[in-house]
Amino acid sequence: MRKASFLVLFSSLLIVLLAACSSDSDETTSINIGEVTRSVFYTPQYVALEKGFFEDEGLDVELQTTWGGDTTMTALLSDGIDVALVGAETSIYVYAQDSNDYAVNFAQLTQTDGTFLVSKENVENFEWEDLKDSNFLGQRKGGMPQMVGEFVLKQHGIDPHNDLNLSQNIDFANIPSAFATGDYEYVQLFEPTASVFEKEGNGHVIASFGEESGHVPYTVFMAKQSYFEDNPENVKAFTRAIYQAQQWVEDADPEEIAEVVQPYFDDVELDILTSSIERYKNQGSFATDPILDEEEWNNLKNIMDEAGELPEDVPYEDVVNTDIAEEIMNE
């Protein structure tokens, strides 16, 4: 009788232990991402979500769009989000404010500018000097699109503030509609808006700022220094998932990629989404690995300095950490 009772007790304990082990193995870690805007430009991030790469790493990722660099960094610094997807220039602005817990860039997502020069009229045999004296609708002052735009224009001998009738007073979200309805002749637009304008006959893509400006850490995942130090395994798992997504995007064809990320762009037709992704792939906008190298960092500082927006010479090693990314790539 005692033997039977012991066996029952042992079996019960074994079931409890197995259940506990199963629960531990299924345990996930929550990470909140704040993306600066919703953009086809961030395709590898949506691939990581949709293909289950984060889940495979034991991460339960919640994505929210925080609309704007200032809002995104405020959310990060106040612990409203764990990880920010935003332009690397924002980490320079925060560092320059003598923050005690500044942002550290740990995984690069895009490596070129993502805007295209769009003209209202079809311009044949376009030359950059054609822009002189034109009504040009620019991006927000101090943001990467505007700084890269000015950098490229100056490379082509155009002073944007003296040679153009430059407007910078339109909010990012309203730039496309302002261009369509206003008397502007040229504008910088991201995809898929540029392709939509072409399809509807409201504009013509005539040049790429991404191709003209070279590699730059345009959009980067960053976390506060304290989060990075307290949660290295989370950062490692996150970076591994992003690297998997980057490799998958590199190998997949644009239509397959578009089908995967379409849930994030309900109002964009599949053919437009496909052509937008193809355009970004062709010009190498999607980073194929998470490394933000020092040459790219220096290019970013040159662009900011040229625009008069570099607050100080922020050292690469202070706000960029590639240790985890390099470790993952060597696995």
Q: Care to describe what's here?
A:
By secondary structure, the protein is an alpha/beta fold. It has two domains: 29-112 and 216-329, D-Maltodextrin-Binding Protein, domain 2, CATH 3.40.190; 115-213, Periplasmic binding protein-like II (D-Maltodextrin-Binding Protein, domain 2), CATH 3.40.190. The chain is built from 16 helices and ten strands. The strands form two sheets. It has a five-stranded mixed beta sheet, with helices on both faces. Helix 11 (232-251) crosses helix 16. The protein starts with a helix and ends with a helix.
Question: What is the gist of this entry?
Answer:
The protein has 331 residues and is an alpha/beta fold. It contains 16 helices and 10 strands.
Main attributes of the structure:
D-Maltodextrin-Binding Protein, domain 2, alpha/beta, 16 helices, globular, five-stranded mixed beta sheet, single chain, 331 residues, 2 domains, 47% helix
